[in-house]
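Reading a protein record of the kind used here takes little practice once its layout is understood. An example of such a record is reproduced below.
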Amino acid sequence: MHKYKTYLKLSFVFLFASSQLFAQKPNEKEIKKLEKAAKQVTIIRDNWGIPHIYGKTDADAVFGLLYAQCEDDFARIEMNYIEKLGRLSEIKGQSVLYNDLEIRLLIDEKEAQNDYEKAKPWLKKLLNAYADGINYYLYKNPAVKPTLLKHFEPWYPLLWTDGSIGAISTGDLTTGELKAFYSANSDKVSYIERKRDVQTGSNGFALAPSKTASGNSILYINPHTSFYFRPEVQISSEEGLNTYGAVTWGQFFIYQGFNENCGWMHTSSNVDVADMYAEKIVTKNNKKFYEYDNQLVPIKEKSITIKYLENGKMESKEFNTYATNHGPIMAQREGKWISLKSYNRSMKSLEQSWIRTKSKNFEDYKQAMDLKANTSNNTVYADSKGNIAYWHGNFIPVRNKNINWSKVVDGTTSATEWKGLHEVSETVHSYNPVNGWLQNCNSTPYSVAGDQSPKKENYPPYMAPDGENFRAMNAIRLLSEGENYTLDKIITDGYNTKLTAFEILIPSLVSNFEKQIKTGNSQYKDLAEPINILKNWDYYSTETSIATTLAIEWGMKLNSVLQKLYIDQGEKDQIENTKNFALNANADQLLPQLQMVVNELKTKFGSWQIPWGEINRFQRLSGAIDLKYDDKLKSLPIGFGPALWGSLPAFKSNYQEGTQRRYGYNGNSFVCAVEFGPKIIAKSLLAGGNSGNPKSKHFDDQSEMYQKGKFKDVYFYKEDVEKNAERSYHPGE
């Protein structure tokens, strides 16, 4: 179904079993013990402000990691957990009331608390260290005033067990439908719809030794997310932990990164992990039942109370919610209640997220994958032994392959139940293909290794409904042709800005224009020069390109089907839709849209001849989560554009409130290229900088590098970290 998806040498009796330690102000004895513990955790900030955390135990490293994250951007940590607790309404008001209800229905905090109580000892230590690291930061920094969460509980990470930017799966159900069902359309408050198509994505490439100049494997890590969603960190312990990469704010595992043995890149997956069921509801004696295998089963009811801010005062609204054996009722369609079966949080998923970061080899990583708990990610992998691998999804229920699971299915029969999980060996994957490369750009796995890819006919449709897109086409072209790769060469390919979609769309535009001219239609004669520029364009996005401006502005005004990247079973993909559109489009579907672009540019700038970099800008004015932009203040021109049309580096920009220029807010964020030789060699780049504090020199010290695609060297080994250290300290200092 479509997805909307240090060192503390202290007794654990005191520190790591004390979930209530900071429920009230710590006493003097507790403070002394914590400060003694903190002195055994070392954080070294390098000359980019990146924290390298060293501890004796894994829990020590987690304590230091969360403390360091709080130093860089506590506000983002807090906001992530306010959202996952379903408490956004307490700060944003009724506008997100039904978003909170959606979270409360899909993520049960009581289940998270129960999981914490029964967690394995090693995991409970990490969970306690997570909470203690944040709470100790709040104690040591009283000037930091949390918006809502003044104390963090160790079970919070069990609400959010996956590091993905879209880790909530709701099938095809919308927040609007949820509101309609639970308010009977009587509630006038608004809501924020969960986005189906973010029009961006992520890229992951793996190169085998046969494709590299050194004979070592190389991994290219290129997530496309909202800017500043993940900082760059390193965490190490004497228990086998030494991991570098990007961590989602407030989580304690490296989501995309590498250790000295292997590396992993995750791209968002469209594997079916959540299904909708039509329930038959029967009322008897004023009680509600649902029909299941010809029997009436009492429907489960649960009261959920959500607080919300209204005119400076806290109000509350109570919802009486319903659920069947499949899951919560989320909507009503054609008179039938619709339930959702999903797997949006699990302790096993959190265990897997941690375990994979300590993999010593390919077998270790495959054992982590065998936990089958990752619901939202594909994985691109490379290691120091020369292995490369790809897995499409991980948690995949076994289903009747003759049913279209992208639609609502019959909830009255056990015939539509999940039949356990597919073994990893049964899922779409590729190990060490002979072509020597793998790629995924949120695209079909059936092109992951070119002509050496898995074959679609060997797998059920629900396992990989993903279609092809223009980024993947671009990647396949480059990797098929490339040889003797180095880090610099894979970065160059990763920054290829060819907008492949326009190779199909522009000829159709030109052809229709020329037909109009030949027939004597002068309606569009003013488009002759813009069309000539587009006709002679090489399809590469650059700062100085006028054609890029015209093409991107025009493309966004064409049929919206061209922007649909994530598809359900049986639907045409972006490539097919674009080809069909270009083949069949008439002048009225192409030329007025370009005329509109020309007119809008003239109105805004006095001319339509505007280079792309003139209007496509990077600007970071503050550390606020909801950024504001200002044409009058400093910004940088960006030559690459949206991934939607085929650019491998992604920079999604829009005209913002009160601006004439477009400002970026999503796309390339943390990017890293890693070579797995006798010693790790890596280069990385962040959007802006590692700190969320505008007063820090590391707030925007990578901005101009980001503009130019100029990467910095990664300091993976401690001796290199120490040579380039800016500051070494213990938490609390």
